[in-house]
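Quick entry between incubations.
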Amino acid sequence: DIQMTQSPASLSASLGETVSIECLASEGISNDLAWYQQKSGKSPQLLIYAASRLQDGVPSRFSGSGSGTRYSLKISGMQPEDEADYFCQQSYKYPLTFGSGTKLEIK
Amino acid sequence: EVQLQQSGAELVKPGASVKLSCKTSGYTFSNYYMSWLKQMPGQNIEWIGNIYGGNGGTGYNQKFKGKATLTVDKSSSTAYMDLSSLTSEDSAVYFCARGYRYNPNWFAYWGQGTLVTVSS
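Done. Structure below.
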C-alpha cells in the first residue's frame, strides 16, 4: 500500500497568516492527489484534486502544488472558517490511502 | 443536486452484523462508483472499497475483505454495506462517498456518516 505521511500533525495560525501542509507519498503518485477539509462532526469536503485543481466553490485562498512524491496545500490568508482538520489522499493505486491529518487551529 | 443520505446510528453487540445504507438522489446511480470509508474517533480515514452502480462490480481494500460486503439496489438508487463479526475495532463512523465519472476516487460528494458502536 502507498503510505501518505502528512505534516505537521497540528498547526496554529493567526488570522491572515499563510499556512502550508505537506504530504509525502511512499512512492510516486503522478499528481493523483486530493486534499479534504473536515470540520468537527462533519463529513470531509473536497478542496483540491489532481494535486492543484480547485474544486468548484472552494475559495481561491486554497491552493495545491507538488509532484512525484511531495505535495502541499497552502492557505493564503487564514480565515476563522478554515479551522478544521485537513487530509491528503492518493488515488494513484488501490487501496486508496489517506494521510493522518493536520489539525489547524486559530492562534 | 447530488445527495447521499445515510442510515442512522447503530448500537450493536460484539459478534453481530449490521447493514448500513446510503440512499442517493440527484444523479444517475448506475453511472457512478460508490465508495465506503471508515473513520475511527480522532483517526485518519480508511478506504474500505467501492461498488459500481451499473453492475454491482466491487473492489475491496484487502484489509476489509471478509469484514465488509458492498451491494447496490438500482431500483432505489441505494448502496449498502454489510459489516460482519463486529468487534470494538469496528466502532467508527462510516461514510459513503461518490467521485467524478472520469475519476471515481476524488470524493466530491459524501454522506453525513453513520456512527456504529459495538458494545455489549
